[in-house]
Amino acid sequence: MSSAPARIPRILGRLARGAIWTLLFAVLAAGGAGLLGQAWHAPGSPARAELTYAGDAALDARLDVATQRLTEIEAEVEKLAAEARIALEEVANDDPTRLRESLQRGGQAATTIEAASRQLRDSLTGLAGEGETAILEFSNGTLVRRSAVLTAIDAASSLIGHWRQVAAHATEAANLNALFTRHDATVLEAAASGRQRNYNRAIGILDQALLTVADIQSVRVRLIAGSEGNVLDEWIERNSAYDAALRALYAALDKSGNTINAEVVSRRREERIAFERLPPDRRTIVVIIAEVARNGLTQAVVAIDAAQGRIEEALAEAT
Description:
By secondary structure, the chain is mainly α.
């Protein structure tokens, strides 16, 4: 019993020493964790650039060449985008000269872009930096450059398809404008023959006008998807109705020997009704051309502008 008080100080001393050692271990553990965090850096991070230096140097050398070639391609892309906008503006012009020249320049630029993009893609066959181990072999900055270069090549490669849409729709729209002009001139020629009482000739000329309307209908089918009515459909319906009514009037006059009878009067009334439904002037044609352009040509021009933007953004990252 007398030894119990003597053991109390020794017990307290051991407890105190244990607390001190526990505190010391905690401090060392925290310090060790900090040192470990400072010492450990994943390959590919700036702090461990020496681990990816060799891979970065080799890959960057190829990316430098590709970036230079993409810069040259971008200059052609800028030309292509400008010609696409000119084509959109010129489709409703009665004089097709500017449109024809624009399509020729744009076609040359598109061909250059396609060939250069294909050659560049072929030159990068087997390009390093792909796969799960890429982050261990290359720095993040180099991998970002690689991705940007490939994105730009993809965008450039898509331009030939968009330009073909521009050229096709612009050509069709220009042809449509030419068909409108041909139709109106044909009907005026038929009317001149009718005033001279040469009804047989007038009827033959109106048959040609109706064939031109059929050609316009074919263009409408190619340019505008779906069967929903539009301004072009309205023009086709009204002009074909008038051509047929005028033809029927001339046939009645020819049959009657230019004598005004009941049939001639009836046909004349139908011709007047059809005439009143015709568009008042040439401005309607401009509206029709604009609507046709929106159904394909505008979308293709916007797609070219979007591809140009992707190339510029990718080049900004790549450089």
